[in-house]
């Protein structure tokens, strides 16, 4: 009973907070921020209705596809490398250094280099640059989260596997991966919005015929402020939806962990 009341209270607080933000946005856009070309909420909604679902879907479907590919490969590589550390401990320093370097590389600076190397995509194909930047955006978070999760395994359980003749690989399969599941899901939850951001930045360097990055560039060139804001808010909604989705998956897959949002 208390849980249901807490959920309703949390939903009311969230709705009230959102309403307050929209109200402040509207007041600011018609008063002190009027000269800053800040559109009103009504103007943004008007742009959404004017352009229609088809316009936004043709761009967001491409970017989400690119982000999903990068999300899959980036996280797969990260989890595999983190697992290697537990089987071959001497590789930890090398793998963590690779992860740190990937985190320290400015994505905006490396995007043009990747575009020169990868080139423009063929018609109907996802942008290789966008996919590569999505991979880069998620790699560090998942490597670190997976490593921390794998190392959090119960020593007693590891000893039991060892006593029965189990190798480090057996410990990894039977104990460490299960113990690391909440941390991995938390890492994936953070990585999902990051993958979308990486894909959008990859589209910014050019060579794409569709995508959120291209739509933003065109809106900027045409000084279409309402459309630019509409695209930005939809990006936030998609990223927030991906974050919430993995939070829900975490609650279902690892209900014993309170660490999963």
Task: For the structure shown, list the relevant keywords.
ABC transporter permease; single chain; MetI-like_sf; transport; transmembrane; MetI-like fold; transmembrane helix; mainly alpha; 261 residues
Set down the secondary structure blueprint.
Elements: H1 2-30, H2 41-87, H3 92-104, H4 107-118, H5 128-151, H6 155-163, H7 168-204, H8 212-221, H9 225-253
Helix pairs in contact: 2-5, 2-7, 2-8, 2-9, 3-5, 4-5, 5-7, 6-7, 7-8, 7-9, 8-9
Tell me what the structure shows:
It is a multi-pass membrane protein. Belongs to the binding-protein-dependent transport system permease family. This is ABC transporter permease. The protein has 261 residues and is mostly helical. The protein has two domains: 38 residues; 213 residues, MetI-like (MetI-like fold). The protein has nine helices and no strands. The two termini are 21 Å apart.
């Amino acid at each position: 009973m208390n849980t249901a009341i807490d959920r309703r209270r949390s939903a009311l607080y969230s709705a009230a907070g959102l309403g307050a933000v929209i109200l402040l946005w509207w007041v600011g856009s018609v008063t002190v921020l009027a000269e800053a070309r800040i559109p009103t909420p009504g103007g943004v909604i008007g742009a959404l209705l004017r352009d229609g679902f088809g316009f936004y879907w043709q761009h967001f479907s491409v970017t989400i596809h690119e982000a999903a590919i990068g999300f899959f490969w980036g996280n797969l590589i990260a989890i595999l490398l983190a697992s290697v550390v537990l089987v071959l401990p001497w590789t930890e320093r090398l793998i963590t250094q690779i992860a740190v370097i990937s985190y320290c590389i400015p994505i905006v600076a490396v995007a043009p280099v990747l575009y020169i190397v990868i080139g423009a995509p063929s018609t109907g194909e996802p942008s290789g640059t966008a996919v590569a930047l999505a991979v880069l955006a998620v790699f560090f978070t998942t490597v670190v989260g997976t490593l921390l999760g794998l190392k959090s395994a119960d020593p007693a359980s590891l000893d039991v596997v060892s006593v029965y003749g189990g190798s480090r690989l057996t410990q990894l399969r039977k104990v460490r991966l299960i113990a690391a599941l909440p941390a991995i899901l938390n890492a994936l939850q953070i990585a999902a919005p990051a993958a979308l951001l990486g894909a959008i930045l990859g589209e910014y360097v050019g060579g794409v015929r569709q995508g959120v990055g291209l739509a933003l560039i065109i809106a900027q060139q045409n000084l279409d402020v309402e459309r630019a804001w509409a695209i930005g808010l939809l990006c936030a909604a998609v990223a927030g939806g991906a974050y919430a989705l993995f939070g829900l998956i975490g609650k279902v897959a690892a209900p014993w962990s309170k660490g999963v949002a």
